[in-house]
Batch of 4 targets.
Target 1
Amino acid sequence: MVTVQPERVTLHRELPGRTSPFRVAEVRARVDGIVLERRFEEGSDVAEGELLYRIDPKPYQAALASAKASLARAQASVQSSKLLAERYATLLEDRAVSQQEHDNAAAAYQAALADVAAGKAAVQAAEIDLGYTRVTSPIAGRIGRAEVTEGAYAQRAQATLLATVQQLDPMYVDLTQASAELLRLRAQWESGALVPSGEGAKVQLVLEDGTLYGEEGVLQFSDVTVNPTTGSITLRALFPNPDKRLLPGMFVRARLEEGTRPEAILVPQQGLRRDAQGRASVWVVGADQKVEVRRVEAPRSVGDKWLITEGLAPGDRVIVEGLQKVRPGSEITVVPGAQAAR
């Protein structure tokens, strides 16, 4: 027999989910041209800024040279336009030229300055396009298969996909929880029966083969929209993945903290029985040392015990051994159990 006493218990829930990468970068062509070289091995780890492809740069080198020549021509024109405008300003004071001629010279100078600005922008654009012929990884991660080979024609308009890089450490795990279950939890949180763990709660992961993942994760957030098809919401947890054991798309089960029940009543599993309808009951010893059957609500187990939400109060004595010998109303001699309900 054990005497039940309230205790603080952290409750966990197991939810299904799938892994997804922390970041995904699709490497796409930003200029037109023939792919000259692939510089990575498929399935390898790449660093941020590492060269992945080289697209034929010759057309863009020629465009840059042309833009620089146009800029030099515009800069030369600025100098002559400036001198002419200053000369006309002096002559205007002596009334040697008309106001119209002076205004035309000043306007020509401003137009030359604008040509220089346009020339600098054209040079910058040509340098950018030339830089895009060197395709680099935008993030550090693991690169998948090559989507194009040497000799393929990459197009800016179609944004040709060249490869995909995924950051696998850390790794997201997207979990699904029924909205009805969330409503039940919130009702318990509001009543104070359960203290929520909230964001940052610890999460453990069970892999597809049933083994427990060695790293512990944390709950990031829960979605604000219920999926109308499944009636569930999405929770997201973040896990370290230094050994790359987790791969995108894996089916997993996550054990996360629902919250803490400050006044939980627990009963050893051998002390509870269920009838054909699944209703739970326990044998308790009353103050007169007589046995009675007590209906209880035992919605879930916690380790090797049942969590009792209704039917028992602190101090109740529950029989956990010799149940086949007791009968309702019989008087017994109490022998404390070796295992306390705690």
Note: The domain at 2-7+264-325 is CATH 2.40.420.20 (conserved putative lor/sdh protein from methanococcus maripaludis s2 fold).
Target 2
Amino acid sequence: MKVLVMGSGQMGKGAAYDLAKQESVEQIILADIDLKCAEALAKEVGPKAIAERVDAKKRAELVKVFSKVDSVVSAVSYTVNKLHTEVAIETGTHMCDLGGNMFVVEEQLGMSDQAKDAGITVVPDCGVAPGMVSVLARHGIEYLDRIDSVKIRVGGLQQDPRPPLNYSLIFAVEGLINEYVEPCVAIRNGEIVNEDPLIGFEELTFPEPFGKLEAFNTSGGTSTLPQTYLGKVNELDYKTIRYPGHGHKMWCLLKLGFMNSNEIDIDGKKVSPRRVLEKLLENNLPPSGKDATLIRVMVEGWKGTESRKIEYEVVDLYDDTTGLTSMMRTTSFPAAVTAMMMADGRITERGVLTPERCIPPELFIEELRSRGIDIKQKIV
């Protein structure tokens, strides 16, 4: 099969590295608006990879390159995901993306009938959260007969945290701030609700050296899970894991208006506080260095007449051998696996479908474990 990776940044690099190792992948086209960047990555990835200059916002250029492949991993800004879905439908090419904005996903889902008519599958939100955790949640839900609650906790952290926020930019700052300002969709008492971000603090513990951590509401992590499982699940929520104290500092910035996109007047000049904050975070947070991704998905309910809890846990670390960060691995590997599953027929449904609706959980978990992502599962 031939696979296109749109974007030669960190996530595009992770997807390309993974695809290059798969025997069934004959060729990888690495597309980027910066040809030198794409060429440098192609050289790193090896003989299966070729580079092309493609503007991710230009329909004509996208049509040309999409037509050359069986499947696409779109690893660029969520702002072009709708356009890429339209091009996938036009060219009859399977595609998955990394999500980043639930309103864009809603627009993509509105094109499901067109994708089905084109005989293709498009999977938005196919990263770590939403994405991997959505499939894990489905696996747990399908194991039980009756579901009381689904709790999803995810965090990308430095192994060696440094002040002032004990955090580094492991992914794009725009997506990070979105998580801290947009509504958090959950299921409470069997009904879909919108909750505020940066509240709902709880303490949780992971194996050393991480120990006690905090988790709090952030947006986007549940994606379409509430709509998919409304009527089947009584409680469902998502929280982000951070080192203790981080959430309150971000809450203070939110309440002071630093995450507000509306421009304000400062000495006769219009300034967006959010853009200032984004730039300051980009300029002043420490390099990510060696990172870790922590995941815990807990599904509680009943198996027959017995109360059961199925729990999935991942502690994934920076890969010293490849130099891939854990966030690259846990975000881009699920997308790479999905792209292959669409192309080789293991994903059979057609349309625009979110991960929990179309990715076969057992096969998906097996693929990720084969890539060194250790998904531990226990039932109590």
Note: The two ends are 41 Å apart (CA to CA).
Target 3
Amino acid sequence: MTNPQGRDNSTANVQTLLNEHPFSGFQWLVFALCFFIVLLDGFDTAAIGYIAPSLIAEWGVSKPALAPVLSAALFGLAAGALMAGPLADRLGRKSVLVGSVAVFALACLASGFSPDIQTLALLRFVTGVGLGAAMPNAVTLMSEYCPDARRATLTNAMFCGFPLGAAFGGFLAAWMIPHFGWRSVLILGGAVPLLLVVALIVFLPESVRYMVARQYPVERIRRTLARIAGHAVQGVQRFVMTESAPAGQGRSGLGLVLSREYRVGSVMLWLAYFMGLVIFYALMNWMPVLFKEAGLDPKTGTLVAALFPLGGVGAVFFGWLMDRFNANRIIAIGYALTAASIWWIGQTAGQLGWLVVAVFVAGTIMNTAQSSMPALAASFYPTSGRATGVAWMLGIGRFGGIAGSYLVAELTARELGFSQIFAVVAIPGLIAMAALVIKQMASPARTAEPAQAASQGAH
């Protein structure tokens, strides 16, 4: 079947259709649903740090004894991500997303009724499993509905939901805890995602690239693409796609992620994300406590700490840069600036004005770099291993969050001062920078400018 210009209309390349048509209302719906998944993920992940001072006061636990509760969700996050990536590459993105949001909603809701610290730790672990499974699949699904030239920008914009959710949780917690107690924060963090589950079941589509890769019925693929490309898919009998990344000799899932073509890049992605989360969770979980010890009242300390994740909206700008220049180098520079700005926080003790500025600047730079990592991973892998690649980076990285939670507990136990703690926490930023430089050296062909790759037909 050909059109009047002689072009064959019986076969269509999925990515070409996404590239050639305007970003549709249907794609914005996918964006909104994934954004809210990540926003609630950020809210629930950060909630435990905001209620930590209340737990110390109500249950009389010491700061080192609080570390297992702060890190329990992180163990769950790692487990959820490591399992969910291969599951999503096998079962599909949507089914894993719906199930994971339901898990973290129910577990977070139940954690608001915890009678003791041991029960809370267990429920935080289960919450983490759901959270860990949800985020990488939201990133993967969003990236697979994006045109090549805007993939990093849109994926990063969607991922901004995480720091915004974490920051919103801080502002909300500062108001809710004095009025309704710390349990109200967790109850809200569980009730809202339950409503989202219904919306996901009704409105969220399966990834169109996944459907093509798994050879779903042509009619189902055509019906989905018609909401993006309209009449352009009428009469199409076969949908195909080509990959800009090497297909890994037919491997899929973890076999592809650890194959010879991807091994060094995968390990460097893991290392960079690991180090970024050392910083993020060390500060998110402990800044309210450290600021209180530095002389701030608890409410002021919580509000200042909430400025740290708020700066993650800068990831949209980084996404724009990543779509135009070398993404590895852009994020590496971000991590180098992160190290400098974290050190600066430690120099502002006793100066509230400068502390507010330093926390916001550090948060903007650090979260911008960290929030750009999932888009970098999504562009690094082909469809057959993308969910696993993104999920394993996030999953391995979660152990960095665990390390960050214990790191500050250990530093306070050794009686390090305010400035010394922040100087130590800055070092992982330099390590993350080095990891991305090594990734760039190991896979230079995979980091060409996206516009250039698209012009060469790499869809």
Note: The CA atoms of residues 109 and 134 lie 17 Å apart.
Target 4
Amino acid sequence: MMIRSVLAALLILAGSSTTLSAEPATKEGEIAVSHFKFGTGETLAELRLHFTTLGTPKRDASGRVTNAVLVLHGTGGSGHQFLRPQFADVLFKAGRLLDPAKYYIILPDDIGHGKSSKPSDGLHAKFPHYDYSDMVRGEMALLKGLKVDHLRLVMGTSMGCMHAFMWGEMYPDFVDALMPLACLPVEIAGRNRLWRKMTMDAITSDPAYMGGEYMSEPKEGLRTAVDMLLIAGSAPIPMQKDLPTRDAADSYYEKQMTARLGDLDANDLLYQVDSSRNYDPSPKLETVKAQVMWVNSADDFINPPELGIAEKEAARLRRGTYVLIPASEQTHGHGTHTWAELWQDRLQELLEKSAQ
């Protein structure tokens, strides 16, 4: 595997600098990794990894980067999701906890997501069958391309939450602090596996899927997939408040279906959901050296607290704190992970503890 630059250096795309509520500016870029080998043994001649950054790297006397923060998105997302107000306006503005004047914030598009290499680029079902380990190694390859040799913090939501635990195990000396948001560090089983299996089977069993070489999107399979995604991301208390009648709920559903179907590619979604198939960091949790602040919410359909898994696994962390946010009209089910006002005090605590 060889990382090479694009257009002689990291490609800072023309016109890519944007403004976030007047500040701060973001930059987008891309690196290419030659002959990236996946855990299945498959190889991609060129793996493109897209990213967005805020701020600039700072180095100590030995040249090591001291202020890099890696923020990892969830299944089907991209780094750009963290530029939404509920996350960026709370954390990335001047004087806030992750002020870009102080931190170098890196928002990758993981393998199979966003503007990084993915099945819909042309390989379709011949694209390598990546998993979470491949994605984390891709994140490390991106950091090498950016010449980042140390991370102050890895923060991740949902799938990115799971990646954060993997970072703590795969690269224990590379990162100071971990903030996993909305996940469990165990094999995906039970209801969590069921909705994923239902989603994948709905796609592949649609006759229009044609083994991944469809001429048009397999709409019936994707409709069922969207149904699963809507339920998995649901938040019962605010939904009951915001959709108090049958007509309101039906209208919401139709609008969501129309909006979500317009952006979905069946192969991309199938690969994204399937990439969790062999995730299980539980055997090595004691090897995590970083300070950990792990936050889940009580109304999370995907990671229901009544299973009691989190408390058991948190006790195995050397330097870990587990927090469960109570369900309320302010929480957003599984999506609570992106509403930073609900857990920013925990981030502050983590930054303070890991700086000692």
Note: Residues 246-261 form the longest helix (16 residues).
